[in-house]
Amino acid sequence: MTLPAAAALTVALYVLVADGIAALVLGGLLGLPGAVVLGALALGSWWQEALRRRLAVVPRLGTALVALAALGVALEIAVLAPPMLDAFTHLLVFLLLLKLYTRRTLRDARDITFLAFFMLVAVSPVTTSVGFLALFVVFLVAGTWLLMLRHLLIEAEGAAGGTPALRVRRDLLGLSLAASAATLLIAGGMFVLIPRVGQAALPLRPQVSRMISGFSDRVELGAFGEIEADATVVMRVHVKDWTAGQGRPELLSALRWRGMALDAFDGRAWTVSRTTLRLTLRRHFAVPFAVHQYYGGPVLTQEIYLEPIGSEMIFGAPRVLRVHGRSDFITIDDLGNIAVPVPSARLNYTVESEPEADDPREADVADARVAPEARWLARYTQLPPQAPRVVELAREVTAGSADRYEAAARLTAWLSRNLRYTRALQRMTDLPPVEEFLFVQRAGNCEYFAAALAVMLRSLGIPARVVNGFQRGEWNPYGNYFIVRLRDAHSWVEAYVTGAGWISLDPSPRGAAEVAAPATPTTLWLDALRLSWYRYVVSWSLHDQLAAAEGVRRATSSWSAMALRAPDWRSVPRLALAALALAIALLVLARRRRTTGTAARHAVPRFYARALRALARRGLTPAVGETAREFARRADTGAPLQRLTGAYERVRFGGAALTADEAAELETCVATLERPGG
Amino acid sequence: MTRALDLIRRLEDNVARALVGKPEAIRLAVIGLLARGHLLIEDVPGVGKTTLAAALARSIGAGFQRIQFTSDMLPSDILGVTVYQPDRGEFVFKPGPLFTNVVLADEINRTTPKTQSSLLEAMNETQVSLDHSTYPLPRPFMVLATQNPLEYEGTHALPESQLDRFLLRIRIGYPGAADEKSILRGGGATSPEALTAVLSIADVLGLQEDVERVRVEDSVLDYLMALVAATRAAPQLRLGVSPRGSLALLRAAQARALADGRDFLVPDDLKALAVPALAHRVLLRGTPGAEADADALVAALRDAVPVPR
Question: How many angstroms away from the CA of A576 is the closest CA of chain B?
């Protein structure tokens, strides 16, 4: 398979241009309509050879146009004041089109390559998408290919003088692919090793294109309806450790990711009242922020990768003990709400939590046995005036309960048994929302359930608050993490029980009502890839590098310790087998290399091999100890073989290359020998 | 390249004016000169050994000395002596006949081993060490030694270690009938004394450097190794070719390539020189002195070694 080199170069060039445009779209620097127009314009330039020839003779056209573009961009920045990156993008796009429509030489090809590269560079700080990796790889492969072709064409031009009709073979493609692979490998190594000096933030383009909303410190009843159908991924929770825990973490059914608790209710909306805010400053880099007191149960360590979300909240399984993150400070209020105001520090953090026991009364926490003070009690039992039938209902359901925990559990069970979960919310009366939910609709979403439970608990004098957060989400076995989507947004209740502290209660019979289609393995796999991209590329920090170095150190020391220990004889056959397989593979590889190497080194020039075949058909073959010259003398077939032998010696032993004329002449000689009876 | 070829052609043609009908012998002598080697000419008297040496020396405008070796000769007769000069009150070195460019050592096997070895040392190191002083020999320096194979009476055969110092062993052989007739008529040959120099000493030194630049492809080198290895493995031989022998064959072959107008080696070069360059370095099992047998054996071994394609 051969291809004209010039055509291959053009194809590579347009692949690079397409790659650059795709990158702009990916980074949100170019809208889809803009991309379509730009793509069409770029593609249109392919056939504009005649135009290019005419433009080439216009003196100083390029200089004038570029000056104009620079002026335009300056004006744009001064008058319209767009983010710098947008102005830069406009300039890049203009230059790209200019170059595409005026390209004549190999230098222009190089310039276009640079422009495509700048497009990727422009996009790199504003995207965290894994798609960038694909675009980068495409650029690397096509770019290497283009540079090699360009070099080849330049060399050929220098050698032949004119425009050569150079053709490329498959081996060049293989070489370029190998070069790209090597470049990727080296770049990967450098990426891991070169110390990180800071997070590439988004200073050039401050606004993030799409923020996920839905979290605020005010929750109006029924406002969540739309969000709950949205499958956008909000966060990914990787369960790192489950110390002293029973069973696999992915089977923990009661897992929820707590966001913020709300304590004040005005009949329609839950809000956060004035709270005491505790600001915790970090004293040392690697020390985590302490949040809750540890009661001595199993500890779940979660690594959370959050999408840019319109909330400062830190999410985690309830009863967060400690938070590790990049931020230098976090705030914790007396509702247990944890917030980090720096957006980039919220993208990745680790939370250690102590999940609640099945029967929280068993926890028997000393702090929770102290009688609460009146002001505190008033805050969590505050209620707007309620219809008597709500309080009646609460009393009726909890009648005969032994303690507050039993009462709370009975109310929760009653709500989830007797009321229906629905997402279709339609007000039917003018009654307060909770009353309408309990007595008229008898159906609602999680917020209604949570609000109703909290109201009923408070009406009985049990301190309660509503909590917003996310359900457990979908388990991804490929990356060992939970995928939490926007539709997993959830509300539940925390009640204060003497002896146990705040306990979580979830009255929504949500699981039964909702059957979301499970994600396909491909989707899950792709999502796992995306997480790896975040984890190991986007948020790869100095801290990670130090941790990795420490891991290597620990691994080597454990290996050396293992080497000193008595060998485990059971593993010997397996190890021996592995070593044998490795040795065989190396041997085969070495042999292959040697044979191919020898073949390449001892290649008999093709013309001579053909001549030998032709002579063999006449019964003339060289003897073992017979040189080419002696054979030619013995064969005595005349000048053609003499000529071929001379050329063979020069090529084979003299390392000479044949000129085109010589090759043609030799071709005739071979043809003479191949002719029957010739 | 063409200049080198031109010089060599001129040299060969000039020598051929004195030594008629022996182009192969002349070619080998030139190869010896270009490869900085020494020649052992083994043949019956009267076939032109002296003529060849003298013509070669004349043609390159170099000094020439003929030393007739006899059984009563001493090393000082060829190297020179240190004598006391009363008027200057010191010892002065009087160089012997060896201090020239081309030396014809006639009938080298007639003298004692002591004298032989003093010559061979000078051949190897291109210098003479005498009385704690070292005297360099002029360059180019080439010894053409002759020995008569048929005379066994009163001769001291050269030991193998000394034979190894000669690059090539050649035979001149009787001239063809037509050539001999023209010699008898006195028309064909010019006397060596009448020859003019066609090359300068500098030309010769330049050509010697060109020889070293002749390209040797890897497979050709492998072929050389195989040739040498064949002599070492042959059961008929008591002694195979030494590494010095391999090097000698390589240098000689490079010189042959240059004389042939090439700047690269082909297997033919090695094949053609295998016998002159190797046969005198091997020892046959059985009776010593069977030189012709050695030639035939090396040729047979050579023809069995596969040629690189």
Answer: 39
Residue among A622, A625, A654 minimizing CB distance to B305: A625
| Tens-place pLDDT, residues A565-580 | 666 666 677 788 888 8
Residue A638 token pair: 């005349």
Please tell me the distance from the alpha carbon of residue A289 to that of residue A302, in angstroms, as a whole number. Answer: 15
Contact A622 B307 (CB under 8 A): yes
Angle at A398 (CA atoms; ends A394, A402), nearest 5 degrees = 150
Which CATH number is correct for B213-309, 1.10.8.80, 3.40.630.30, 2.60.40.640, 1.10.940.10?
1.10.8.80
- Mutating which of B213, B250, B264, B266 best tests the A interface, going by the most A Cβ atoms within 10 A? B266
Please compute the mean of the pLDDT values over residues B169-182 and round it to a whole number. Answer: 80
Instruction: Answer yes or no: is pLDDT of A318 > 90.
Output: no
Which tokens hold the place of B178? 């037509």
Min distance B250 CA to chain A CA atoms (Å): 15
Domain boundaries of chain B, sorted by first residue: 1-208, 213-309
A675 pLDDT higher than 70: yes
What is the C-alpha to C-alpha distance for residues A607 and A665, in angstroms, rounded to an integer? 11
**Subunit contact A601:B218, Cβ cutoff 8 A:** yes
Asked if B215 and A655 come within 8 Å (Cβ–Cβ), the reply is yes
Distance CA A326, CA A411 (A): 41
Q: Do A629 and B266 touch (CB under 8 A)?
A: yes
Using an 8 Å Cβ cutoff, are B171 and B18 in contact? no
Residues of B in CB contact (< 8 Å) with A are 215, 217-220, 262-268, 271, 302-309
> Is the pLDDT score of A39 beyond 80?
yes
Does residue A18 have a pLDDT over 90?
yes
